[in-house]
Specification:
The complex is a heterodimer of chains A (287) and B (81).
Chain A: H1 2-17, H2 22-25, H3 50-53, H4 57-88, H5 97-125, H6 144-168, H7 175-206, H8 212-231, H9 236-241, H10 247-256, H11 258-277
Helix pairs in contact in A: 1-5, 1-7, 4-5, 4-6, 5-7, 6-7, 6-8, 6-11
Chain B: H1 3-15, H2 38-52, H3 69-76
Helix pairs in contact in B: 1-2, 1-3
Classes of the chains: A mainly alpha (287), B mainly alpha (81).
Chain lengths: 287, 81
């Protein structure tokens, strides 16, 4: 944990230096022009499907807008769960004070991100799409729940950060959407560095004490989490709002489409490689 | 058997080929017997919304409501069956 404490101290310094106020930083126009892109076309969940190609540009832009509302909603639900877990780990057991100090920044930053995402969804989409993920109760070996929580943080943030990085500098997008994505990415880089180190450290500490059944359970749990996180990117409600009348069939088709699977594999590769490299996963999940 | 129960039953059997239809009763504990995984639950919720043509009540999305075919229908049937 000494290396981790050093990293946490550096990250806290960076958070102080880059402390921001989203209430002052963001200007929210009354309406968004619907003739602009609000989501990168190549990242739209139906991209690569004939149904997407058959849309004219205004229809593609309408779909892109609802994909943005869905993406920001995924961020809201993911960060809400994250905030709860981070708070539980403040001043936790015998963890070093540097970790709590950074967790305060982490929490503060996540809370501010949520307000930005929530403002966008409520102001322009008039809703936040519902969270349909459900955790099933299970027993944990000692240290397993802590490891799994921070491993999930890494998975969730790696996936959203791929989108943030791409859209933060995508000049085809409306400036507000670019700004939100860039703003999120700026903090996520630190969160990811912390999450990666902490999950690795927890795994190295506890995995040697786990039996084969627990290790297999960890692999299955993380695989399921990656798949269920990706499922949220394919939302029939988005397709219905964009004007498709076969939204459920489209959801099923998109999930099974080779082009969409290839996209999920490419976006997840860094994260999965990290887990494989450090023994935290033993095989690639079927995405 | 109610329409919704029949539809959910067929959905479970089609998504889980290993499940024997002859032993799947209205009271079979779907989570305890690992017939439904957490990923399949997300799919099932979308399926319920699709067949009923309206969003599920998100407050009802709790593990105990997915215990069996009976509890699923009691919690999610759009109209009493």
């Amino acid at each position: 944990m000494e290396r981790l404490a050093r990293i946490a101290r550096k990250l806290s310094d960076a958070s102080v230096k880059r402390y921001n106020n989203p209430y002052a930083e963001f200007q929210w126009p009354q309406d968004l022009p619907m003739d602009q892109w609000h989501f990168a076309p190549e990242l739209i969940s139906l991209y690569g499907l004939e149904e997407y190609a058959a849309l004219n540009e205004p229809q593609q832009k309408q779909l892109a807008f609802w994909e943005a509302v869905n993406f920001f909603g995924i961020n809201i639900h993911g960060e809400k769960a994250l905030i709860g877990g981070l708070a539980e780990h403040l001043y936790y057991m015998n963890w070093s004070p540097e970790l709590s100090e950074y967790l305060h920044h982490f929490l503060d930053e996540e809370n501010k991100h949520m307000t930005v995402f929530g403002t966008f969804c409520h102001r322009y989409g008039k809703k936040v799409y519902a969270d349909k993920k459900m955790a099933l109760p299970r027993d944990y070996a000692k240290g397993e729940a802590d490891f799994l929580f921070f491993a999930k943080v890494v998975i969730f943030e790696e996936l959203v950060d791929h989108y943030n990085m791409a859209m933060g500098k995508d000049e085809r997008l409306h400036p507000l959407v670019q700004h939100i994505n860039q703003y999120h990415h700026n903090d996520e880089a630190r969160h990811l560095a912390f999450g990666r180190e902490l999950s690795k450290s927890l795994f190295e500490q506890w995995a040697p004490t786990w039996n084969e059944q627990t290790l297999a359970g960890v692999q299955a749990y993380l695989s399921n989490y990656i798949v269920s996180t990706w499922r949220e990117y394919y939302n029939p409600a988005v397709y219905a709002d964009a004007g498709f009348d076969n939204s459920y069939a489209l959801y099923q088709k998109a999930w099974s489409a080779p082009a969409c699977r290839a996209h999920r594999e490419a976006v997840s590769a860094n994260c999965i490689n990290y887990f494989l490299e450090h023994g935290m996963m033993t095989e690639r999940p079927a995405l | 058997m109610s329409t919704l129960k029949h539809q959910v039953r067929e959905w479970i059997l089609s998504t889980n080929p290993a499940v024997d239809g002859a032993t799947l009763t209205d009271e079979t504990p779907l989570l305890e017997q690992k017939i439904l995984s957490s990923i399949q639950l997300m799919d099932l919720i979308l399926f319920l919304e699709h067949v009923q043509g309206q969003p599920v009540d998100i407050d009802q999305v709790r593990p105990e409501n997915f215990h069996s075919l009976n509890t699923i229908c009691a919690a999610f049937a759009a109209t009493p069956e």
